[in-house]
Amino acid sequence: ALALALALPLALPSVALENGLARTPPMGWMSWERFRCNVDCQEDPRNCISEQLFFEMADRLAEDGWRELGYEYVNIDDCWSAKQRDAAGQLVPDPKRFPSGIKALADYVHARGLKLGIYGDLGIFTCGGYPGTMLEHVKQDAQTFAAWGVDMLKLDGCYSTAEEQAKGYPEMARALNATGRPIVYSCSWPAYQGGLPPKVNYTILAEICNLWRNYDDIQDSWDSVLSIVDWFFTNQDVLQPAAGPGHWNDPDMLIIGNFGLSYEQSRSQMALWTVMAAPLLMSTDLRTISPSAKEILQNRLMIQINQDPLGIQGRRIVKEKSHIEVFLRPLSQAASALVFFSRRTDMPFRYTTSLAKLHFPEDAVYEVQDVYVGKIIGALKTADNFSVVINPSGVVMWYLRPMALPVQPRHAG
After folding, report:
1. Strands 315-319 and 324-330
2. What 8-state DSSP symbol labels residue 210?
3. 406: enclosing H helix or E strand
4. Same domain, 113 and 229
5. How many C-beta atoms lie closer than 10 Å to residue 62's C-beta?
6. Any alpha helices (H) in 84-161, and if so which ranges?
7. Same domain, yes or no, for 253 and 332?
8. What are the E-state strand segments in 174-291?
9. Domain end among 278, 307, 336
10. 3 state DSSP class of 73
11. Are 338 and 275 found together in one domain?
12. Distance CA 21, CA 150 (A)
């Protein structure tokens, strides 16, 4: 009966995918950006794609304060499987690198209060050249993943045609629902179709997938982060309405803690992904992460904003000639998050504005908290001018809560 109940909403065109999952953006860890398709366990046992890597990352999530903050998914990306399906046509993990099997890995992850994600590809091969999921294997693979105890599936789109994608992505949604196991479904479909209408129909996507990759893979560089930010906010009129509880735009992994971002740029990625209501899927080595990167990723107020139950994606509301940009995300209980972002490359910049200029309601008063510094600025009126100092390629991020207006005493005339 559960499987039937889960499958029903797909027959109703006007509702989002109601598997009841991903009501807030998924959070966790993912192997791809940092560890790629390193399968050389002979030469590099510590960093190759093997069960050991995932056991160790699960330990870190459970023991280093990540799980309590909501980072719950341990996600295997490409290159986990054997090069061939077995005699029954089933996907099998590489026997040398995953000798215990995926079910044992899922049990290990679950025992630590975490969830396991896995990777598939709708096509002849995965992007890394491993067996893909052709249309005739969709049902079988969904059942295999469910039997293993998988909690999330990322379905890539290498080596498939637009027609196969149009058939296969909805079919996998039905197949996952039919297993009766709650499995969050991440689709790469729009990324392979250019991410924009008319080729991409976001109404249909929201009925099929819990999250989807719209654009290019992130690389370990600030240029890559900027190109993603540019594409998402240039196209915000199309993308922003598509997101909400149960169905999210995914600008790809957090690369904070790796090699390519400075401290300021790391803070910027975290703030911009949060304002976008993006999934927070870290791809870094949690065994060796620096205290400063960890502090950014474990910022409680930041995570609270990212996980806001309204699930409204933010927008860029100002783009100044001075290369300062302002982003706004509406939050529950009439709160908001503001991000002041500098694209300057010279020196810290003092930016002056008011909440009135940013179209906040007239005559309102806000308590403002600096998300990174923690400092509270009491009673900021909409009409008041204020200044923030923003470092090059850095951000200042504010959390604003409306304050009740004091009752004005009446003066007897």
Report:
1. antiparallel
2. S
3. none
4. yes
5. 19
6. 102-111, 138-148
7. no
8. 184-187, 211-213, 248-250, 280-282
9. 307
10. strand
11. no
12. 14
d(Cα 35, Cα 75) in Å, to the nearest integer? 12
Report the candidate in 333, 273, 337, 266 with the shortest Cα–Cα distance to residue 301.
337
The three-state secondary structure class of 263 is helix
Look at residue 413 and tell me if it is in a domain.
Answer: no
CATH of residue 240: 3.20.20.70
Catalytic residue numbers? 156, 217
Cα distance between residue 338 and residue 28, in whole Å: 24
Question: Any idea of the CA torsion for 340, 275, 295, 106, to the nearest 10 degrees?
Answer: -160
Tell me how far apart the alpha carbons of residues 82 and 90 are, in angstroms, rounded to a whole number: 11
| Same domain assignment for residues 197 and 68 | yes
CA 61 to chain centre: 17
Asked whether residue 17 is domain-assigned, the answer is: no
Residues 292, 256: Cα–Cα separation, whole Å: 10
**Are 230 and 178 found together in one domain?**
yes
Total domains, the chain: 2
One domain for residues 269 and 297 = yes
User: Which letter, b or e, does each residue of 385-406 get, where b requires 16 or more Cβ atoms within 10 Å of its Cβ?
Assistant: eeebebbbbbbbbbbbeeeeee
pLDDT tens digit string along 59-89?
999 999 999 999 999 999 999 999 999 999 9
Note whether residue 5 is domain-resident: no
Distance CA 363, CA 367 (A): 14
Question: Over the stretch 210-258, which tens digit does the pLDDT of each residue have?
Answer: 999 999 999 999 999 999 999 999 999 999 999 999 999 999 999 999 9
The reply to whether 218 and 156 lie within a common domain is yes
Among candidates 83, 194, 100, which has minimal Cα distance to 148?
Answer: 100
- CA distances to 14, 201, 238, 313 from 23, rounded to whole Å, are 18, 21, 21, 13
**Is residue 184 located within the same domain as residue 251?**
yes
User: Domain containing 375: what range?
Assistant: 315-402
The reply to whether 19 falls in a domain is no
- pTM exceeds 0.85 for this model: yes
| 71 touches 282 (CB < 8 A) | yes
Nearest to 117 by CA among 29, 57, 180: 29
